[in-house]
Specification:
It is a single chain. This protein is an alpha/beta fold. It is built from 15 helices and seven strands. The protein has a seven-stranded mixed sheet. Helix 4 (34-43) packs across helix 6 (59-68) and helix 4 (34-43) packs across helix 7. The longest helix has 13 residues, at 154-166. It starts with a helix and ends with a strand. 32% of the residues are buried.
Length: 268
């Protein structure tokens, strides 16, 4: 319901699943409505074959979903089941197929002074990791020397490139990569930031972030919740503020909702 409200003019079809990329397929078993997904796999075997070819590691999980959901347990038609499944993962499809719609409907609510002092960014190399449509990257580009927008979704990377060309922004560069696999050398980045992006593979992401940051580099993770939903980020909060990772946290509310910032300096 939330995604239908967020993207009211988007129409989805089963064929849109071909827009998903391999890293998205990898996480489908944890995201899908399993009875509805079983219906879709049975009625569209080409989708099943495509997903397994894209990401062979999902094969056993898909077989398990099929075995555990042997028949339709409700009165919905095949089309209704498939439609429910598509809207459960509509954000993944919109990322790839309609990046311009995602960018227009998702507001970036942070001002630079809420995130970091602009003086810290002067002459520095920064990463917006999990950049999406690049709203944070373009903000950082106003102050930093160079900004790498690291983003695994091809549609978003193309969107950022076209926007940079259109707005004559010369210091934003896109890179194909994930937070747990950043295509840059060790100790090469001054500042790394994320917005609503960490948590898919949290420990490996944090290890990778500290690999690419220079000694005394800064890392900041931003979250925004319209309501104070403590459970939404509890597992992330407990993990990254633990004695192992030692992130600090600030949290406050403004007219847009709750803003949460995790940050630390990499010890040299």
């Amino acid at each position: 319901k939330m995604l239908k409200k967020l993207f009211p003019n988007v129409k989805l079809g089963v064929e849109d699943l071909f827009f998903l990329e391999s890293f998205q397929v990898k996480y489908l078993p944890d995201r899908v409505l399993k009875p509805e997904f079983a219906v879709l796999l049975r009625n569209y075997p080409i989708i099943h074959r495509y997903f397994v070819a894209m990401c062979p590691s999902v094969s056993k999980a898909f077989d398990s979903i099929l075995n555990d959901n042997l028949s339709i347990e409700n009165n919905k038609t095949v089309d209704e089941n498939c439609n429910d499944l598509l809207w459960e993962i509509a954000d993944l499809i919109v990322y790839s197929k309609y990046p311009e719609i995602y960018a227009a409907n998702i507001e970036f609510v942070w001002d630079i002074d809420e995130i970091i002092s602009p003086d810290i960014l002067k002459g520095k190399v920064a990463i917006d990791a999990g950049a999406g449509p690049g709203k944070l990257a373009f903000m950082l580009a106003q102050f930093a020397k160079t900004v790498f927008a690291v983003e695994p979704v091809k549609g978003f990377r193309q969107f950022i490139k076209e926007k940079a060309n259109r707005e004559n922004v010369k210091n934003v560069f896109t890179m194909d990569g994930c937070l747990d696999s950043i295509p840059l050398p060790d100790n090469s980045i001054d500042v790394l930031m994320t917005s609503q992006a960490i948590g898919w593979n949290l420990e490996d992401e944090l290890i990778e972030i500290e690999r690419v940051l220079k000694p005394n580099g800064s890392v900041i993770h931003l979250f925004h919740n319209p309501v104070d939903d403590k459970e939404a980020t509890k597992s992330i909060h407990d993990f990254i503020t633990s004695s192992k990772w030692k992130y600090e946290c600030t949290k406050y509310k403004d007219s847009t909702g709750w803003k949460i910032k995790y940050y630390k300096t990499i010890v040299s």
